[in-house]
Amino acid sequence: MERITSRENPQIKQLTKLIAQKKERTRTGLFVAEGARIAADAVKSGLAVEQLFLTPQARERYPQEAALLTEKAQKIYEITPELAQKIANTNTPQGVFCVLPMLDNHFQTATIWGTGHYLVLCSLQDPGNLGTIIRSCEAFGIDRLFLTDDCPDLYSPKVLRATMGGVFRLPITVVDNLPGLFEKFWGEKVPVYAAALQEGAKDITQLPLNQGGAVVIGNEGKGLPPEVVALCDSAVIIPMAGRAESLNASVAASIVAWEMARP
């Protein structure tokens, strides 16, 4: 096991880039899981640990997770708490950093079936919202989550933390062609609904979503573009009793996922 104390170490420089830069994650096909629990969740979900960086204090504080990660890691580096503080994306780092390969999020390998339950996120902006939606989708048994390629990076630290490990267990696909995705849905007889406040929109509680369907949810500020709504089979709304005009995107997505899960 190599011990590293300097931020100028080449391995630490690369680790810092992977944490901070989407471009570097895309180039290498790698990302960093920071924290004992999320790193252990990744390993339990079948991901290989290419590199493990941890402090002696982390070994003592998280013995089970540290043992699992150490057993699976190809390379292990011991770092100081001071160095962990400098490279961490959190204010109180746990001293555990795992370098892992990205999951298969390609459209070509995505499977769809007629009775499946799907959410599609279009141009979402907030990483925290995306992480919360992933967590809700996993909790309610959504079969696959689709993201347009202008949504936040799945492997950014904020998204990873908000998913509570759900990102490793929920099938997620990134798409750059919504019409192509909709054609794939229709080919399997999956109805496609737009979550949109417009005249003629159907009450989501009155639809048989538990029998299968795809619901498209838009940007936090602007909602769905009119051309996307026009492509869908129909628009749907979540009934609200108060005076609020709309719901937060993650709240709306969670309600939709619950409606799909209802018996």
Automatic annotation (TrEMBL):
<dbReference type="InterPro" id="IPR029028">
    <property type="entry name" value="Alpha/beta_knot_MTases"/>
</dbReference>
<dbReference type="InterPro" id="IPR051259">
    <property type="entry name" value="rRNA_Methyltransferase"/>
</dbReference>
<dbReference type="InterPro" id="IPR053888">
    <property type="entry name" value="MRM3-like_sub_bind"/>
</dbReference>
<dbReference type="InterPro" id="IPR001537">
    <property type="entry name" value="SpoU_MeTrfase"/>
</dbReference>
<keyword id="KW-0489">Methyltransferase</keyword>
<dbReference type="InterPro" id="IPR029026">
    <property type="entry name" value="tRNA_m1G_MTases_N"/>
</dbReference>
<feature type="domain" description="RNA 2-O ribose methyltransferase substrate binding">
    <location>
        <begin position="32"/>
        <end position="106"/>
    </location>
</feature>
<dbReference type="GO" id="GO:0008173">
    <property type="term" value="F:RNA methyltransferase activity"/>
</dbReference>
<dbReference type="GO" id="GO:0003723">
    <property type="term" value="F:RNA binding"/>
</dbReference>
<comment type="similarity">
    <text>Belongs to the class IV-like SAM-binding methyltransferase superfamily. RNA methyltransferase TrmH family.</text>
</comment>
<dbReference type="GO" id="GO:0032259">
    <property type="term" value="P:methylation"/>
</dbReference>
<dbReference type="Pfam" id="PF22435">
    <property type="entry name" value="MRM3-like_sub_bind"/>
</dbReference>
<dbReference type="InterPro" id="IPR029064">
    <property type="entry name" value="Ribosomal_eL30-like_sf"/>
</dbReference>
<dbReference type="GO" id="GO:0006396">
    <property type="term" value="P:RNA processing"/>
</dbReference>
<dbReference type="GO" id="GO:0005737">
    <property type="term" value="C:cytoplasm"/>
</dbReference>
<keyword id="KW-0808">Transferase</keyword>
<protein>
    <submittedName>
        <fullName>23S rRNA (Uridine(2479)-2'-O)-methyltransferase</fullName>
        <ecNumber>2.1.1.208</ecNumber>
    </submittedName>
</protein>
<dbReference type="Pfam" id="PF00588">
    <property type="entry name" value="SpoU_methylase"/>
</dbReference>
<dbReference type="InterPro" id="IPR013123">
    <property type="entry name" value="SpoU_subst-bd"/>
</dbReference>
